[in-house]
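Hi all, long-time lurker, first post. I run a small reading group and we've been trying to get comfortable going from sequence to structure in the token notation. Rather than ask abstract questions, I figured I'd post a concrete chain and ask someone more experienced to write out its structure so we can walk through it together at our next meeting. Sequence below, copied exactly:
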Amino acid sequence: MHILVGILGIAAAIYFFVIRARNAAHVAQDVVEMAGDVRAAARRFGFKRKTNVHPVETIEEPNLAIAAIATAFVEMDDLPTKEQRDALDQALRDHLDMDAATSQEATILGHWFVSECHGPETAVPRLSRKLFKLNGKDSFEALLSVVNASVVAGSGELNPKQREALDDIRRAFRVT
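-- Answer (accepted) --
Happy to help. Here is the structure in token form:
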């Protein structure tokens, strides 16, 4: 009888490890798919990674920089809710004349740029300076429109980090 219990125990352990391995494979597949989404979005915007150059410095599309700044701005308010992400997506479509697929890809890339800058607090000034280099003061109004529309969907008020980020944007665009 004790041999039968031992065999059942070994079978249960094998089953347990097989199930865990299958779940690990599913998680790995999800990570690969997310990386594929970022690569597809990057290809669509013509983004090319260059050696020894920060990814933000390779941005050539002002709308992509605006989307990245707005993404960083939303991420400063704890974890963005679905309503905030939807509002950001809608603001990109309304103020930058993007279609749904382009705005989603821009936010995916924007999140990646923020993570490459090690957080939204450091991303906003760097992305703002890059946007100013790309388009001068012409993008300032569009940027503020997108940021305002995405903040209104959240709490409606700016937190201290977001106020500081607005000051960083003003400094980058040389606005008093």
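A couple of things your group might point at:
The first helix runs from residue 2 to 44.
The chain has a mean pLDDT of 81.
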